[in-house]
Design goal:
single chain, about 120 residues, mainly alpha, Hypothetical protein af1432, 7 helices, about 55% helix, about 0% strand
């Protein structure tokens, strides 16, 4: 996913430093899943509504994990918002918009291309 996030960040015209941050954040974007139960993460059947809500919390958890680490200060917003949609439904985030958009686009590309 890093490769595609970087390519998309470049195509969006982000400055070189931001493209680097986007690439690094792409590697860390799911870190919030680290404390989730394997039985939920690896469940072969459909998730229950409660399990789905648990999974949906991983971006915020990931941001909370990395927020105290000064070196990741510029990565936190993109990680926190990496599942937000930019389709006009009001879920735009004012912070980390370019970072999140490039990771979201690379996720969208990756999902149908992997089994």
């Amino acid at each position: 996913m890093r490769k595609f996030a970087v390519l998309i960040g470049r195509s969006l015209g982000l400055p070189k430093e931001e493209v680097e941050i986007v690439g690094q954040a792409a590697l860390l974007h799911d870190i919030g899943k680290i404390g989730m139960l394997d039985k939920i993460l690896n469940k072969p059947a459909n998730l229950t509504p409660e399990e789905r809500e648990t999974i949906k919390s991983h971006p915020v958890i990931g941001a909370q994990i990395l927020a105290p680490v000064r070196i990741f200060a510029k990565h936190v917003a993109g990680i926190k918002h990496h599942h937000e949609m930019y389709d006009g439904d009001g879920s735009r985030s004012p912070e980390g918009e370019g970072e999140s958009r490039s990771r979201r686009a690379s996720s969208a590309w990756r999902m149908p291309s992997t089994p």
